[in-house]
Specification:
This protein is of the alpha/beta class. The protein has seven helices and twelve strands. It is about 25% helix and about 25% strand. It has two domains: about 5-220, 3-Layer(aba) Sandwich (Aminopeptidase), CATH 3.40.630; about 225-295, no CATH class. The chain starts with 6 loop residues before the first helix and ends in a 13-residue tail after the last strand. It binds zinc ion (ZN). Zinc ion (ZN) binds near residues 1 and 90.
Length: about 300
């Protein structure tokens, strides 16, 4: 759906490989369930590596207007299939974390069906399934599961499908320490799917209480990619905290991570995936005179945690 969010797509192909592996458990699965997959709803966005489609429209805000061909295709398939369960697969930015603090490596949402966030039968099913997946991943010592904001937005596909009475689960693959290629969250999504469809004995016959969904910590915007503490910016006396964010850019058919200046005086509750205490050290951002937010930084850090000259 979002062209620059491919982690869950990779995990889906891992899952397809597993369920076609001719094991008894996967044969049983395929005798009970039929899977329909749109592996790439937004091919133009994928080619351009943008969230939006070629017309600049966010397909996940087009569920009511159905102004785009892709949205019409998705809705027509939904109406024709009348599925029992929908999975809506995404990546979330590295800014999201949970209390701890820890990066939210995988987040879930059982989207609301109305503005009152009523727990409709469809939503209750989605919540219970999310609890099941969360328990399974947690049992494998990964406690980095978050819960996405459930404010109702009828323009979002998940909210629209849930209000049509079909349980829908939003997956948001996120950041894991030092893993910008997201292989860790890819494995989280894979194991979540294993648990969802009872493909491991450890996830079978475990009754879950859907209300546990609300005990999953809520996602918070508490991370920046790089934070420098106790910095003297351009020679000023006061010590400040400054932050930087990576942008993923397509360069020669490859994704490269470029660092951009994000903010001066970062909130005290914000943490860095990489952080350094410069102990009063002086930082020059772009020039001796100007600090330009959203300006590309070429010589601070590289993605392998190497501290470079500023
Ligand atoms: Zn997305």
């Amino acid at each position: 759906m979002h062209g620059n969010e491919s982690t869950t797509t990779k995990a889906l192909f891992d899952f397809f490989k597993f369920i076609t592996s001719n094991k008894q458990v996967t044969k049983d699965l395929l005798s009970k369930h039929t899977f329909y997959v749109l592996p790439m709803l937004n091919p133009d966005g994928a080619a351009l590596y943008t969230r939006e489609n070629a017309n600049g429209v966010d397909l996940n805000r087009d569920a009511q207007a159905l102004s785009q061909r892709e949205s019409k295709v998705l809705r027509s398939i939904f109406d024709a299939l009348q599925p029992d369960l929908c999975l809506n697969m995404h990546d979330q930015r590295s800014i999201f974390g949970i209390k701890g603090p820890k990066p939210a490596t995988l987040s879930f949402l059982a989207p609301s069906a109305d503005i009152l966030k009523t727990i409709t039968p469809a939503r209750e099913v989605a919540m219970g399934l999310i609890v099941k997946m969360k328990n399974y991943i947690k049992a494998h010592h990964h406690n980095q599961i978050g819960r996405f904001d459930d404010s109702y937005n009828q323009n979002c596909v998940g909210d629209s499908f849930t209000s049509s009475g079909v349980p829908t689960i939003l997956f948001e693959a996120g950041h894991f320490k030092d893993d910008y290629s997201r292989e860790q969250s890819r494995s989280f999504v894979f194991y979540a799917l294993i648990a969802l469809f009872d493909l491991d004995a450890a996830s079978q016959n475990n009754s879950v209480d859907y209300k546990e969904y609300f005990n999953i910590p809520e996602n918070q915007k508490i991370y920046k990619d790089v934070v420098l503490y106790n910095v003297r910016v351009d020679g000023e006396d006061t010590l400040q905290t400054i932050s930087f964010q990576y942008k993923e850019i397509i360069h020669d058919q490859n994704i490269v991570f470029e660092l951009y200046f994000d903010a001066v005086e970062v909130d005290k509750d914000v943490f860095g995936h990489q952080y350094f205490d410069l102990q009063g050290g002086k930082v020059l951002v772009n020039s001796h005179q100007n600090i330009v937010i959203d300006k590309k930084i070429s010589t601070i850090f590289d993605i392998n945690r190497n501290l470079m000259l500023i």
